[in-house]
Amino acid sequence: MKFMFQLSLILLIQFLSNSGSAQETLLTDNQVYGLDQLLHNGKQYTYFLPAGTSGSHFFHGPEYEQGSVQIRGISYKNLLLNYDVYNQQLILRFKTLAGNEQLMAISNAWLEAFTFGNKQFELLALQDTMRQIYQVIGTGDIRVLYSFTKILSLDKSYGATNFNFSKPIRESVLLIRSRPIKYKNNRSFIALFGQVNQPILKKFLRQQKINVKKANDLQMVKLMNFCNTLQDK
């Protein structure tokens, strides 16, 4: 009887130990987004730069920043991302279950929105155009959209044979009730509003010392909040 009791105790300990290991492995596997086919519906990212190229094709630089993505209504957080402005691709850096690091361009066909650093981006089709990546500022009927491009050109120095990337070139659009209108400066921005609101808006810009051509994101958020309070926009 004593032998049978000891044997049963050993088997029980082994069962509990194996159960714990299996549970730990399962939790680890589920925490890896590499198992999610929706997120990983993209192509391996490779982009070879001409030798001696200066500047970067990325939004800020080669460093990956923490962010989130929304794909078909599902959000994924705490990802390492970078925005390739030149090729208009969002790049995900991740480790496979085998521990290998990979870079993948997330498919623009399913991608809806993403955060990168402290900026919010959405893929939008404006007035029957193709879907494009825009930084979005504001949450009301009136929002600002920024689109970014970069140019790769030959260095203009005499005798130079190297290429360089430009800084991000920004184009500004004011979205008023889903109607996009481009603007360049305070004057053209104010002109997008009705005559009653133009002097009110002009006064606000002057008091807040906001130049829409150079304003930072926090200033533009303040401006969008104010614009959404205007009557008969």
Please give a structural write-up.
This protein has 233 residues and is an alpha+beta fold. It has 2 domains: 34-183, no CATH class; 187-233. The protein is built from 4 helices and 13 strands. The chain has helices at 2-30, 186-190, 198-208, 217-227; strands spanning 42-44, 65-71, 74-84, 89-95, 101-106, 111-116, 119-124, 132-137, 142-149, 152-154, 163-165, 169-176, 179-183. An 11-stranded antiparallel sheet has the order 1-5-4-3-2-6-7-8-9-12-13. The protein has a two-stranded antiparallel sheet with strand order 10-11. A hairpin with a 5-residue loop joins strand 4 (89-95) and strand 5. The chain is globular, with a radius of gyration of 26 Å. Mean pLDDT is 83; it is low at 1-34.
Question: What's the structural blueprint in terms of helices and strands?
Answer:
Elements: H1 2-30, E1 42-44, E2 65-71, E3 74-84, E4 89-95, E5 101-106, E6 111-116, E7 119-124, E8 132-137, E9 142-149, E10 152-154, E11 163-165, E12 169-176, E13 179-183, H2 186-190, H3 198-208, H4 217-227
Antiparallel strand pairs: 1-5, 2-3, 2-6, 3-4, 4-5, 6-7, 7-8, 8-9, 9-12, 10-11, 12-13
Question: How large is the share of residues in beta strands?
Answer: 25-35%
| Unreliable parts | 1-34
Please outline the major beta sheet. 11 strands, antiparallel
Count of the domains:
2
Mean pLDDT: 83
Shape: globular
Secondary structural class: alpha+beta
Number of DSSP-assigned strands: 13
Q: What is the rounded Rg?
A: 26 Å
Counted by DSSP, the helix tally is: 4
Strand order of the largest sheet: 1-5-4-3-2-6-7-8-9-12-13
Helix content range: 10-25%
